[in-house]
Every structure is written in structure tokens, then in C-alpha cells.
Amino acid sequence: MAEFPTGLRKYFDSDPAVGRVLRIGTRPRKRAPVVEVSEWDLTTAADHGTARQKRAVTLIQAEHIPVIKQISGAEFDALDLRRNVLVSGINLAALRWARFSVGEVVLEGTLPCDPCERMEGLLGPGGYAAMFGMGGLCARLVTPGVIRVGDPVRRLGFRDDLPRE
Fold first, then answer.
1. What is the pLDDT of residues 83-98, one digit of tens each?
2. Which residues span the domain enclosing 116?
3. Structural domain contains residue 9
4. Is residue 161 part of a domain?
5. Comparing 7-16, 45-54, 90-99, which segment has the lowest mean pLDDT?
6. Which of 3, 30, 50, 80 is the most buried (most CB within 10 A)?
């Protein structure tokens, strides 16, 4: 995905959208099946190791699921895509350079959550391409806490490490 669009900063700052957590899935270990939970305690660990990693939490936008299904021709459950948090009502791509809250947790968007080779097996031939650009967002944990189904997702502002205009 593109570098931070400094000239467009004012448009991201004016985004009033508030999303909502629809579902949460975690994995007890790497490559393990996703287990659906109603809340996820991020006070001690994240899904991909330490909380400071760029992929501590992965999110995917519910609005993209029907599009991925249509393009791939596959039927699947959204949590099969191996993302932790399914959200609706907010554009995750616009959170790429932001700090945002998910309930009491604060995250920083770090990079797009591109599909992995496992999507070819799940979605069939072309599954990777069908999901590309709609795989969601990876985030680093800033403030630990608990994420619950139904929690709001709110943009808080830009990450501190970004250039000013």
C-alpha cells in the first residue's frame, strides 16, 4: 500500500465514522484454527506474539466479505479468513496510519493485512487475488485491555511517527 498521504491529512482528520465489532476470533497457537470468542483480553498477549509487533491484532471489514465471496465464488465464514476482529461501519484502510480505539483497547494501524497462501486452499484457485486489497489491517497494541463484541471502533488521530505536512 502507498506511503502516508501527507497532502490528504485533513481529509482523514475529518472522518466522523464509528464502526462496531461484530465478531472476534483468536488462535491458541500459530496455524491453529480460529476460535470465536465474545471478548478478547489483550492485557497479556496478542495473536501474533508480543503486543509491540506490527501484526499483534488483525482486523477485517465486514463490508468486504460479500465482495470476496462474489469474486472467489467460494462460501466461507468470515473468521475462516484468519483475522481477529470483524468490524463494520468504518473504513479500515483509512486507519492504516492512525491510532484508533476498539472498546477500551488502543491500536495503531501498521500495514495492510494481505492474504496469505492459505487463502488459495480456502477460497480455491484465485482466492489470493480475490481477497487482495480487502484483507484488512494489521495493528500494533498501544493500550491493552479487553475487546468485546459490540464495542465501538473510533479513529483517535494519526500515529506519532508520521511526517507533518
1. 999 999 999 999 998 9
2. 15-155
3. no
4. no
5. 45-54
6. 80
Residue 86 CA, distance from chain mean position: 7
What are the C-alpha distances in Å from 22 to residues 86, 88, 111, 127? 6, 7, 22, 23
Total domains present in the chain: 1
Q: Where are the beta strands (DSSP E) in 62-159?
A: 85-88, 98-102, 105-112, 137-143, 146-148, 152-158
pLDDT in tens, 96-152: 989 999 999 999 999 999 988 888 888 999 999 999 999 999 999 999 999 999 999
Indicate which CATH number applies to the domain containing 29: 2.40.33.20
C-alpha cell read off for 83: 483475522
Q: d(Cα 84, Cα 57) in Å, to the nearest integer?
A: 6
User: Distance between the two ends of the chain, CA-based, in angstroms?
Assistant: 20
Cell 501474533, residue located? 48
- Enumerate residues 6+ apart whose C-beta is below 8 A from 121: 127
Residue 114 in domain? yes
